[in-house]
């Protein structure tokens, strides 16, 4: 009889051992001419490679990008017009040269099998150049953040102090059922009292998606305090994303020939020592 001791953050469920592998997409496997973006007139979803378990939704109709995500390498923080919807506000990618820009309500699909399940570990996001300017200065159809005009707050809130916000919410789905957990990150936040703590994101911020759990798709929903009576967001609905990472459980190995299992310490919130004996 051979005795083995496993020390670490190994989780055993019904005596099945799971190992985990991460896959990261930086979008740099795509070759683009300088300052350009993905465009497919057929509106075809795109997949980074056969070895990566993610597919990015993409829609194109009547010479217009209609949904999903677009990989790009545009570096432009000067053109703040609607003709520059792809460029990120940070000017450069989180790492490498390429990144992706995402439209409100975009979906990203993950491939699972009965023994190969995926979580989205997380990713980095920032505003686009166009959206950053829209939040700061307003557009013909959206309000400058902080501006009380049209809010009904002008009589009791100083101009520039309206508690605006703009955020991303990530929803997960598995077999068509929405996860009980979602995660959020504010891309702009004017809610704190006064103006000294107001901010509009223009660097890369990490979104931790582990609480969502195992999924076969996620949906990226933008929302804003600037909306009309039909609850339609007036703030332009774009953001940029990079370093998209998934974690999957691989190498499931059921141990059905073991005896004398001990777990220590018990209880524990850190490392768990699992000692057992294999039947020869």
The computed structural class is mainly beta
Note the run of SSEs as H and E.
EEEEEEEEEHEEEEEEEE
Give the tally of β-strands.
17
Proportion in β-strands: 35-45%
Largest sheet: 8 strands, antiparallel
The rounded Rg comes to 23 Å
- Tell me the distance between the termini: 5 Å
Q: Average pLDDT across residues?
A: 87
What is the subunit organization of this protein?
A: single chain
Task: Classify the helix fraction into a percent range.
Answer: under 10%
Overview of the structural elements:
The chain is mostly beta strands and 280 residues long. It has one helix at residues 129-137, and strands at residues 2-8, 12-13, 16-25, 54-56, 58-61, 64-72, 99-103, 106-110, 117-126, 165-174, 177-189, 199-200, 205-208, 217-224, 238-254, 258-264, 272-278. Strands 2, 3, 5, 6, 7, 9, 13 and 15 form an eight-stranded antiparallel β-sheet that branches. A six-stranded antiparallel β-sheet has the order 4-8-14-10-11-12. A hairpin with a 2-residue loop joins strand 2 and strand 3 (16-25). The radius of gyration is 23 Å and the shape is globular. The model is unreliable at 1-17 (pLDDT under 50).
């Amino acid at each position: 009889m051979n005795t083995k001791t496993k020390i670490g953050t190994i989780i055993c469920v019904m005596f099945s051992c799971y190992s985990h592998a991460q896959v990261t997409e930086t979008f740099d496997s795509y070759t683009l001419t300088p300052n350009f973006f993905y465009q497919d007139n057929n509106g075809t979803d795109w997949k980074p490679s056969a070895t990566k378990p993610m597919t990015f939704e993409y829609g194109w109709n009547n010479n217009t990008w209609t949904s999903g995500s677009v990989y790009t390498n545009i570096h432009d923080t000067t053109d703040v017009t609607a003709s520059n919807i792809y460029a990120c506000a940070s000017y450069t990618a989180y790492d490498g040269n390429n990144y992706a820009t995402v439209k409100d309500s975009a979906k990203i699909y993950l491939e699972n099998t009965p023994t190969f399940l995926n979580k989205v570990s997380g990713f980095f996001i920032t505003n686009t150049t166009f959206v950053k300017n829209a939040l700061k200065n307003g557009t013909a159809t959206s309000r400058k953040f902080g501006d009380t005009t049209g809010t009904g707050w002008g009589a009791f809130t100083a101009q520039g102090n309206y508690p605006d916000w703009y955020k991303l919410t990530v929803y997960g789905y598995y077999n068509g059922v929405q996860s009980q957990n979602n995660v959020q990150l504010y891309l702009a936040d004017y809610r704190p009292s006064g103006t000294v703590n107001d901010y509009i994101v223009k660097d890369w911020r990490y979104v931790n998606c582990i609480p969502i759990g195992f999924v076969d798709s996620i949906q990226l929903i933008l929302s804003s305090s600037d909306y009309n009576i039909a609850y339609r967001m007036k703030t332009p609905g774009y953001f940029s994303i990079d370093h998209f990472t998934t974690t999957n459980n691989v190498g499931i190995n059921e141990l059905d020939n073991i005896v004398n299992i001990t777990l220590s310490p018990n209880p524990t919130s850190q490392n768990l020592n699992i000692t057992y004996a294999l039947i020869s």
